Each structure stands twice: as structure tokens, then as C-alpha cells.
Amino acid sequence: MMYAPKVAPPRADLVPLAGTSVIPASTVATSASAQRGTSPESTTTIVIGSGFSALAVAAELNRQGIKTIVVDSGCPMKSPAPLAPTTGGISLTALNERSEIVRLLEHYARRHELDLRPTTQALEFTQHHGEAPSQRQWRVQTTTGMLTAHSVVFTRSALSQLRRLLHSVGVTTATDVRAGMHALGIYLVGVGDLAIPTTQEILHQAKRASQSISARIATRELGSVAATA
Questions:
Q1: pLDDT tens track, the chain, 229 positions
Q2: Inter-CA distances, 84 with 48, 79, 89, 93, 94, Å
């Protein structure tokens, strides 16, 4: 059963995107009052999550020319364990590298006006089956309205939502779970063999996900052309 849209409480003029610096709320979020009672907003890809992983995949998707909306998962992440400066965890050098890349990604997001909505939270996911595979979409109910897209990217902060979604569509944890996810248009960025993926690993995951989504779009468009021929 779909949850009724909930209006987010008033926020300060500046709203932090988790793991990044402060971004003006007026430039990244559409007000709840403006979306209530409107039809679903359509895009190509929805990114669920926040912070470094969300910024990285949003930037890669933009470079591929893929229309994307980034919303928050609404799932608070557990505080990470203290990081040792030289052994265990992430080194101070790696943290400094990630901070610099985040700064560059934030600049890229502002310059290219990426659609980041840190005050909008994803609530529920449903799959809409069209008459043809190319018409299948994901519907994401958020605190400010309904979004539809052909692909959804989850980041580490949205893992619990991803597990529930995979269970609901019959995809269980197995060696081929990633292939099953991709067949459904679902992608994961920011989680790897390590408890905390390295900066370069996350960047590579973001690039691979965007390339896979781009190929999926091309295949869908070819299918649409063949169906109308």
C-alpha cells in the first residue's frame, strides 16, 4: 500500500547534504506545496542517498547526458568507527583526498545545476509494468510527490531500502544478485568488499553504473523503434 505523501518540516535556508558542505536549499529542492496534487514527475534515473557516492554517480550520469534526480534515503547511517591515522580504517591521506574530490564534485554539481534534493526523502518503491519491457518504470514515492524513472541507483545510506525492494521483487542474496538487479534497472554505488570502500572504488562504481544505465537506455530505445517499425 502506498504511503500518503508527507510534507517535510520547514528547513533552514541552508540545508546540509550528508557528507558534504552546505548547499542552498532553494537551488536544489522543489517545495512540497508546489508538488502536491500534481502528476508524477518523470526522469530517466533516480539516485537514492546522499554524500560522496550520490554526488559521484550524479556527476557521471550527467556526463553521459542522462537526466537524473537525487533524493535522500531518509535512513540515518550508523556512525563509523574511529579511523586510525595510519593503520586500520581509512588513512588521513585518503580522507583528505576524498574531501578534495567532494569539493570538486560539489563545484561540478553547482556549475551544471544537477537536480539535488537533500530535503526530499524516498518513502516507497513500486514497479510499473508497461505493455512492453521498454515501458517498465520504477515509481518512487517521496515526501514531496511521486517520481518515475527507468533506473534507480541506491547508495550505501539506502541499503535497508534496497534489501526490502529486492525481497519484494524476488531477488535474493546470491552470486548473481547484481545481474538480477541490473536486469531490473537497479544499481548500487558505495558498497564493496570493504566495510568502507575506498574513494577510487566508489568513483569506479559510479562510472560503471552510469555506463550500464547508458547502455540500458540505448537498448530500450532500439526496442521502442523496433516495436513501432
A1: 444 444 444 444 333 333 333 334 433 444 443 444 578 999 999 999 988 999 999 999 999 999 999 999 876 544 444 434 444 455 677 778 888 999 999 999 999 999 999 999 999 998 887 665 556 789 999 999 999 999 999 988 777 888 888 877 777 655 567 778 888 899 999 887 656 788 999 999 999 999 999 999 988 877 665 556 5
A2: 30, 15, 6, 11, 11
CATH level 2 (architecture), domain 14-22+40-77+86-228: 3-Layer(bba) Sandwich (3.50)
Cβ atoms within 10 Å, residue 108: 16
Query: What is the pTM assigned to this prediction?
Result: 0.73
**In which region does residue 140 sit, left (phi positive, over 0), alpha (psi from -120 to 50) or beta (all else)?**
beta
Dist. CA 156–CA 16, nearest whole Å: 18
Taking the domains of the chain in order of start, what are their residue ranges?
14-22+40-77+86-228
Grid cell for residue 86: 595510519
Give CA separation, 104 vs 8, 33, 144, 209, in Å: 29, 32, 29, 20
Count CB neighbours of 116 within 10 A.
27
How many CA atoms lie less than 13 Å away from 24 in the CB half-sphere? 5
| 147 three-class SS | strand
Question: How big is the chain by its Cα radius of gyration, in Å?
Answer: 18
